[in-house]
Structures
1.
Amino acid sequence: MPVQPPDTSPPALGDFGQFGGRYVAETLMPAVEQLAREWPIAWADEAFQAEYSRILSEYVGRPSPLTPAPRLAAAIGGGQIWLKREDLNHTGAHKINNCVGQVLLARRLGKTRIIAETGAGQHGVATATVCAYFGLPCVVYMGAEDVARQALNVFRMRLLGAEVRPVEAGSATLKDAINEALRDWVANVADTHYVIGSVMGPDPYPSMVRDLQRVIGDEARAQCLDRMGSLPDAVVACVGGGSNAIGIFAAFLDDPGVQLIGVEAAGEGLEGRHAATMSRGEVGVYHGMRSLVLQNDDGQLQEAHSISAGLDYPGIGPEHAHLRERGRARYLAIDDEQALAALSLLSRTEGIIPALETAHALAALEPLVAELGPQAKLLVNLSGRGDKDMHTVMGRLDAESLALVERARAHSSQAQAGQGGQ
Amino acid sequence: MSGSHPGRIAARFADCRAQGRAALVGYLTGFDPDHERSLANLLAACEAGVDVLELGVPFSDPTADGPEIQAAMVRALAAGASLEGVLGLASRVRERFAELPIVLFSYANPLLRACDRDPAGARGFCARLRELGVDGLLVVDLPPEQASILRAPAIAAGLDWIGLCAPTSPPARLNKIVNDASGFVYAVSLTGVTGSALDADSEALRAQLEDLRGRTQLPIAVGFGVREPAQVQALAPQVDAVVVGSALVQAGRDGPSSLASRVADLRAATTG
C-alpha cells in the first residue's frame, strides 16, 4: 500500500484516524451535519433508548440467544464454539437492529420518507419491515443484477409495501444501488432519510450504525460471562461493509485479552475476482468516506465478487480500516468454496443453516482452532440465516438434489399423463 | 512553466463583463466517447464560443451526476479514459486556445490517487496541472471540511479553487465556501443531480443568487439543469456566468457540428 504523503492527511472528522470523514456533495452536507448533531442527542435521550429497546424486545425478538456448537467444534478439531444467534431476529439477520434505530431517528427529525440500498436484499427487507411497522413510505434501490438473483427478497419487500427500484447503471450491483440512493437523497433531502445499511458512508453513519449494532456485542459479552464463565479468547465475524462485525467487536474493544477477527470474502481467490478489501484494497475516497477500497491505479473503483451478495462490495467501513491499522483487529480472507463447505458443515452438525455471508466467519474457525489450540473459546456472530441463499447453494453444492427434484417432476408429469389416458 | 498565464479565469470574466454579457461555462466529459472524438468535440465547442471550459474527469461512481453525464463517463471509461489521458486533452485544447480558461471537474478519488502517486505529492501534482494549462479545480465531493488536502496545494500552485454553493447550504457554510474559493463561485441551481429539470425563473433561485452576491466579490456562475437559450437569457442578468453541462454532452453525441451549433445558440443568449 502506498504511504500517504503528509499533505494529503485529512482533518479529523469521525474518530477513525486517517479514515472516515464526510466526502459528499455540498447539497448533502447540511443533512449530514444535522445527523451528526442530532444522533448523539437522540442516543443519549432516555425516551429514545426506551423506545428502541422496547421495539428490539417485543418486535425483533431480542435478546438473541447464545448457542454452544459442540458438534461443530468436534468436526473442526476442537475449541469451545459459541454462536450469537442474530439469525433468529425478525427478518433473519442483524440488519434490523440498525433499521429500527435509524427510522426512529428519522421520525424524530420529522422526515416522512425513507430510502435504502440493498445488495442481497436483507437490509432492504429489514428497512421495508420497519417502514411497514411505522407506516412510512419506503423506496429501496437494488442493482438489476441483484434483483434478478434475489427474486424472493424483491417480492418480500413489495409485499411489505416498499417500492423496489432496479438500478441498471455500472455493474448493476450493491455499489450502484448506493450511488442511486445518494442521488435520490440529493434530490429529496428535505423530507427524506437515507437508511445506510452498514458502518460505511459519510460521518456520522459509521458511528451511528455501530452504536445501533452494539447491542449484539453488549448482549454477547454478558452471555459469555454468564454461560462460559469468562470472556472469549477471540470474537469472529464476517465483514462486507462491516456492521455485524463492528456491532459485536464494539463491546470487546477494551478487553485486551480478546482477539477481534474479521473475515472477508476472497471470492474466486485473491488472484482472481474477490471482495477482499482488507487484503487487496488501498486508501481511497468513495461513498462519502476515506477508507480502504478496491481500485485501479487511476482511482476507478473495481467491481467486487463474492458468492454472498452481502459481502460483494469494493469498500469497507472506516472503523475496520482503523482497527486493523492500529493492530486491534485482524482480518482473514475466505473463498467461495470454503464458505460453501462451512455452510454445509454447520447445517449438518448443529441443525443451523447460516447465511453465505456468515459462512465466511464459520470457515475461519478451523484454522483459528489450529492456531489458538483446542481449548480456545471462540465467539462467532451468526449474523444471518441462509434461507435467502438456498437457490445459490443448491446450484453450487447439491446438483444431486436438483437432479432429484427434476426426476420427481418428470415422474409426476408422467403419472398425470397416464391418468389422463384412462 | 512555458504557457503559464496567471489569471486566465479572472481575465475572461473581465472581458465578458466589458462586453455586457455573462460568460458561458461549457462542461464536457473527457474521452466521451473516445479520445479522438472527444478532442474534436472540445475544440468545436471552444471554437463556437465556450468562454470557460469545464473538462470532466470520468469516474466509475459519479454520485452527483444525472443520467446524461453518468452515461458519458461510462462511455469514456470503456474507451480507456484515464486522468492522464484527460490531462492530455487539456493540453491539446491549451495549444489551440492560449487564453481560454480550463477548469478540471472531478470526483476526489482520481485526483487524490494521482497525488499519492506523484513523487512530490499533492504539490507536485497540482504544479503539473498548472504546467499543462489547467487554471482551476472543481471537486464535487470535497466540501470545505475535507478540501484542505487538495485546496492548499492547488492554491500554492496557482490554480483557482472553485467553491460549490448549494440551495441547501446555510449562511455559515456559504460564508466558509466563498471565503475558501478563488476564480469564481459555482451556485448549484437546484436540489438534485446534474441535468435535472430547472425552473430558471423561480423566485427561490433569484433570492439564492441575490443572497450569494451579498457574500462575495468573486464572479458567480450558476449551473445544474440549464439546457435552453431561454434559461441562459433568464439567468444571465443575475450572474457572471451560466454553466451548461448535460445539454452539451447530449448535443456532443451527434458530433462536433451539432455541438457547435448548440454552443452558438447558448452563447447568443448570454447577453440576457
Note: The longest helix of chain A spans residues 205-227.
2.
Amino acid sequence: MILEIKIAMLVLVIVCAVASITIKDLLGAAVVFGTYSFMMCLLWVSMAAVDVAFTEATIGAGISTVLMIAAVFRTTRRTKD
Amino acid sequence: MDIVMYVLLGLGLLFFTGGTLGLIRLPDVYSRLHMAGKIDTMGSISLIAALFLHEIETFDMAHLLVGLKILLVLFFQFLASPTACHAMVNACLRAGLAPWVKDGQRSDP
Amino acid sequence: MKRLALFTVILAGVLFAATASEFPRLGDPDSAPSRHLSPAYIQGSLPQTHTPNFVTAVLGDYRGFDTMFETAVVFLAGMSCFFILRALRRRGLTEVYYYRHKPTGVVLAMLAPRRISPRTSCFERIDADWTPQDMVVETMCLFMVPFIQVFALYVIAHGHYSPGGGFQGGVLLAASFILVGLSRDLRTVESLLTEKTAILTAAAGVCLYAGTGLLALFFGGNFLDYGAYASFFGAAVPAARSMGILIVEIGVALTVMATLVTIYKLVSSRGTVEEGL
C-alpha cells in the first residue's frame, strides 16, 4: 500500500487514541474510540492481516462502541477528572 | 467505459470535497448533517460504482463475482446511510436543538 | 497520581521503542519465524486440513487449545457480567409499568403487581422514556436484519476459504439482535432470545467445542485431533479435519453471539432486563 496513506493512518490512530482519553464528554470519547478501532482495522488491512482486520471492525468498531454508548446512556455523560 | 469511470471518480471526489468543506464550515447541526448525508450517499456511491466498473473491465466469472459483491455494498450503503442520517436528525429534533437562522430573523424551532 | 501515570506511560513507551528496533522488519524473509514456522503452516494447511485460509486452520486445528480457552474466556466474561450486573430483585424501588392504548394513544401507568396481560391486543407495553417510534428507522433496521444474519452464516461457513470464522460470524449475529433492540425495544430481543436461552446457548457452544475434542479420544485420536473422525465421516483425514474445524467454529459462534447479546441486555437496562435502549 502507498506509504503516505499508511503514515496518514498511523497519525490518525495516534490522534484518535489521545483524543479518546482526553475528551471530557464520555459519549464523544466512545465515538472517537470507535474511530480509533476503525483506523486500526484499516492499518491491519494495510499489513495484509485481513482476519484481524475483520475482527477489529466487528468487535472494536461495532459491538464495543454500542456497549460503551449503552453504558454512558445508563450512567453519566461527564467525567469526574 | 474508462471515461464513465473517470467521470464517476471525479464526481465522488467532488462530493467528498464539498461535503468535507461544508462539514467544517456550516453553522449548525442540521446543515452539517446535510453535508454528511451528501458524503455518505452520493460520494461513496459514485466511488463504489467506479470501483465496480474498474472491476468488471476484464470480463470473466471471477471478476464478475467480485463486482456483484461491490454492487451489494453499494446497495446497502444506499439504504443504510440515509437511514442513519435521518435517525440523527430525528434525535436532534427530539433533543430540542434549534435550527440556525440568519441574524435578525425570527427563529421558530 | 496523574504525573505518576504519565511517567509510567512515557517509560513504557521508551522501553517499547528501544525493544521495537530489535524486532525483525515486517515480512522479513530471514527472521526466525519466517524461516521455520510460517512456511510449515503456509505449505501444510492445504494438504493437511483442506483449508486454504491458513489463519482459520491455525486457529481451529493447529492451535485448537488456545481457541477453546478463548471461547471459555468469552463465556466466563458473559457470566461475570451476569453475576455483577443482574439485579435479581429490586428492593425499595416502586416498579411502574407503562401501557399504551394503541388506537387512542392514551398511556396508563400501573404499579408493579398489577399488569395488563400481553394477550389483550389493544394495549402495548412501552418504556418509561418512550417517544413515538420513527417508522423509517424501524423499517430499515428490520429490513437489514435478515441480510446481516445471512452474511454472518456465510462468514462462519466460508471461513475456510475467505477471511472470517466463528468469532466474526458470532459478533455479526449478535449485532443483528442488537440492531433489533436499538430499532424497537429490549422486549422484542427478549422475546426472540430470552436470557435463559442465551446463557444456555453460550454454555452449549463451549460444550460443543470441548465435546468435539473429547469425542476424538473415543475414536482413537488425541484431544482435539479431528483427523480421528475420518472413519466417522467416511472421508480422508484432511477432509475430516476441515469438518472438525467447521463444527468448532459453529461452537465459537454460538458462544460469542449469546454472550454479547447477554452483555448488551444487561448493560443497556441497568441489570433489569425490562426497559432497554
Note: The longest helix of chain B spans residues 61-95.
